[in-house]
Amino acid sequence: DALAEADVPCWADKAYRGTGGTVRIPCWGRWETLSTGQQAVNRSHPKIRALVEQAVATLKSWRLLRRLRCSTTRITSLVQAILTLHLTSSE
What we know:
Elements: H1 2-6, E1 10-11, E2 23-24, H2 36-61, H3 72-89
Parallel strand pairs: 1-2
């Protein structure tokens, strides 16, 4: 509900079926019965989720964030900087 209220898109796995709002899940059904568009969605969905999971793992590995005591505005800037460094180094 909080994601929908904030209009934040979220990619989840099939376990979140029925959540609605801005939560996007892969299309259900057998591969053969899915339309071409649905197959394309199911191919791209795990690629997007993998990027997010890598970013979260990177944030967890930065020990700086564990002991950080500052305003949430500043934390947001630090997280953006860390993820920019991660994405730049992984290209």
